[in-house]
């Protein structure tokens, strides 16, 4: 297991204890944040017929909800930095519940856009980002595992909600179902109540004891592979942060736009999010379009979620090993590329059995990517800057998240077939996968060079200090002899 990373948190995270309760709370909160918009696709066909709208218009419902969840990232970051994760998550649960209850009385599709999309989406933003942030305050060595377990909440909740929503619809219609879902989502408030702030004084950060210059340098070289990228760029970040003390910087760290790793992550994610959610959103409607019955179509989402459920913790365990964690961004690049390959092959798999095969392989790919998505960002910028980083990333990503499903729905409207939509999503994932492989190789190479330069500079400083001490000792000895 790699040694503990140094951080600027000012304390040593407990890496356990109440932290596992935090992971459970995040499991619930993150689960609803990601699974809720996907599970609502069960109602799309019926709502589409009820309001007489097109594929692209009904796709805006989940798209607006996801985009609002991402657009609310900076607001959530500011509130978390000011008040902590617990109250923000509880308010988020209340917002989602309110949105669903109001939507059950909807009379137009615009009413649903407002209630489910905007109000519900902002509530999900207040559930997602604080849950991710608080994990970084409780975990350091075991952080990839903790993030992987917390992100498993999404497929578990989706696996449960997909058949439940179909049963609710058959029993109560979409209006009654939305009313009941408004009560179910209040579990996020319970999850938020569990998110007790970390006790920063329980395990104070140990002070470094003086050591020989050569020994210290050798130790740093030996542990260089285990240190996060944010630690390797520590001196540069200090200079950047010293210039970033404006009013805005008190709430969100804009100096991240000068961070090389953050920019690489942001550019690739903007492209991949055009094809990230649409394949899940249209999986059940695609199956129904091919003549598959409603329950079998809904079961595809359960198969997808079940596979996703198992691969996320496995990905977290693999990401926490000494072989993968030092180069975890290559693992992330592979996950993005693998998603693209799955979407390109989806239209080539005929019949219901083909869709089952696609659901399994897509579940593996989606779960790997989701488990690594925020862990890689935290590895790049460090836990101390993660809250601001995820807020900036989500507000920029809300554009492709908003436009992705409707553009995909427009392709279905134009061609009358879903296969072109899946081809487009495959390209949107394949291109950033290749981009990440290239840019992460470049970034790792630059970081290694900078680290070697830092070690060499420290060695020179140590040698100069030793020589100065020897000269002082020699001078003192000469004066004593004189």
TrEMBL record:
UniProt catalytic activity: 3-methyl-2-oxobutanoate(out) + H(+)(out) = 3-methyl-2-oxobutanoate(in) + H(+)(in); 4-methyl-2-oxopentanoate(out) + H(+)(out) = 4-methyl-2-oxopentanoate(in) + H(+)(in)
Keyword Cell membrane belongs to the record: yes
Membrane topology designation: Multi-pass membrane protein
Domain Major facilitator superfamily (MFS) profile: 19-444
Subcellular location: Basolateral cell membrane
Cellular component GO terms held in the UniProt record: basolateral plasma membrane
Segments crossing the lipid bilayer: 17-37, 58-80, 100-124, 145-164, 176-195, 262-284, 296-318, 330-350, 356-377, 389-408, 420-442
GO molecular function term, any single one: symporter activity
Keywords noted in UniProt: Cell membrane, Membrane, Symport, Transmembrane, Transmembrane helix, Transport
Family: Belongs to the major facilitator superfamily. Monocarboxylate porter (TC 2.A.1.13) family.
Name this protein carries in UniProt: Major facilitator superfamily (MFS) profile domain-containing protein
